[in-house]
Amino acid sequence: MKHYIRSILLACFALPFLLQAQQAYLVKVGTFLDAKRKDFAALQPLGFVHADKLDDRHYTVFVGEYTSQAKADAVAAQVRNKGYANATVVTHQPSGRQVVVIQIASLDAKDAVNWERFLPAGELYLNLQDDLLRLGVGLFSGVGEARERLPQVKAAGFQDAFIKKVDLAFVHKVTSFELGDVKRELIPLAFNEQAKPAGDTDSQSPPGTSVKSVSPEPAAVSPPDIRSDIRRSSVIGLQTVLKAEGNYTASIDGYYGQGTDQAYQQFMAKNPYMQRYRILAGNLDFSIETGLDGAIQQAIYTLNTDPTAFQTLQGSDAPVAYGYLAYQLFVAQGPSMQVNNYMNEAIRRAYSGRSSNNELPFDPNSAYAYPNLDQLLLHLSYIHSAQGNRYAMPCWLFERHPEEMARAQAAFTDYASDDFMVQACDPFVQWEEVRMMLAVADDLGGRPVLQNQEQLRFNASRRAKLYLIDKPVTEKELMESVQTWDKELMTNLDAWANRDPLHKDLMLAFKTTYYQSQVRLEDFYMNKGYPQNQANILALATLHTLVSYQLERFV
After folding, report:
1. Which range (81-90, 94-103, 193-202, 452-461) has the least confidence?
2. Which numeric CATH code is attached to 20-179?
C-alpha cells in the first residue's frame, strides 16, 4: 500500500514535467513595430502577454502557452474580438533538451506581475502553462551549478526557491518587453555579475562608419621576477656573452643568480651601444594593429565594454558581425533559435562560394544548434579563419572565457590558417629588454622595423595567440621548429660578427638583450603554469614573432 501511495505521489509530482514535454499552443497576436507591452494591456486578462524580438524594432507578440489546442483556440477567438483580426494559434514543439533553472515563484498568468519584487534574484526566465506563470533564475549548465547559486537566491528573499528541469523550448527570457516600464540594470556586457554597462543599447543609434579601429592598449604586465633556482640554456647564453666582455667572472652554470644580474646591469650601464639603444628604445613605437580599420573591427574590439557596439554589428552584412550578434545574444539570454539563426547565417556567409586550404570538419550549408559556448566559440573561430576574413578576434574573448576558448582552439588547431587573426594585445613590447632587442634588430636587419606591415601583423597575431592560449605546446601549433631557428640565427650571427669589429659590437648588444628577453619570457610562461621545457619553447616562439622578420637574412 505504501508503495502504491508513493507511486501516486511521484506521478503527481512529475505531471507538470510530463505535460511540459508535450507540444504546447500559443496565441500569436501578430508582429509589430516598436511594440510595448502596455499597448496590449487589454489582452492581459486573457493570459500572459510576451514577445520574441525579431530585430532592433520588430516584435512578435503572443498570449499564453496552453496544453490543449481547444483552450488556445478559445483564447485566440477572444483576442480577435479585441481587434487583432489576424490572431492565430501556433504550435510549440519541445526541443528534447532539459535545462536547469531555480524556480522562485508561481503566479496567476492573468495577474499583473510585481517585477520589482523578483529582479533582485538575477536574470529571470518564465515558463507558462495554461493559467500558471512560473518565474525562475537561470539558465544553469547543470544541477551542480544551480546548487551553488541556490543559497544566494534564497538570501535575496526567495526562501521557497527550488531547482527544477524544464525543456529548453518552454523557457522564455524575461526581456524589456515583459518588464514594460520597470527599470533594471542591463545585461553585464563585461560578463561578470558585478560589471554593468552604462546606457541602454536599445536606445542608442548606430555610430558612423568612418571609424579607424584602434586596439586598446595592452594590459600593463610587468616583467616577471627571474627564478634563480633553475638551470637553463638561455642563462648559459647570457653568461657566455657577459663573460666574453669581462662583466661576468663566475662559472657558467646556467643559474640566474645575483652575479649574473649584476653583470647584466653593469653591461647595460657601461657599454656605449647599450646606452644608445636604451634611449632609442624609449622613443620608438612598436605597436602593431592586426585587424582591419573600420567600425566593425572596432565594435568587435569593444563589444564587452561599449553599449553601441551591438548596434554597429546589427548594421553590417559581414559574416563575422552575425557571429558576434549570436555570441552577445547567447551571453545575454542563453541558447535560443535567434542565436542559432544568427550563427548559421554567419557560417553560410563566411563559406559561401569560397574555397578552403583545409577540409572543413563540418558542412557550412547545414543548420546547427548552439546549446553551449564551446560550440559557438568553435564555429566563431572557423568564421574568423574563413578565406578573405581579415577581422581579428578580440583578446577579451580569450580573457572572459579562457577554458572554453582553450577547448575551441584545441579542436580548431588542425584547420587554423594564416587568415586567422587575433588582436595584438600582448604586453611584451613594453618590457625594456624586449624594446632594446627590437631596436638592435632593426639595425641588424638594415631596414625600418615597420616596413612590412602585413608580415608584422601576422607575427603580432601569432604572438597574441601564444600570450592568450593556455594549453600544452605541440610542434604543430608552433608551425615550425623554433629551436632550429634559434640555433641557426646564433650561428650565423657569430659568423657575420667575425668579419668586422663593428659587427661584433652589434651582435653582442643583440645577444645580450635577446637572452635577457628569453629568460624573462620563460619565467612569464612558467608563471602561467607551463613546465620549464614548454616555457622554453614558448619563449623562443615569442622571440621568433618579435625579430624573425627583421633578421630573416641571417636564417
Report:
1. 193-202
2. 3.30.70.1070
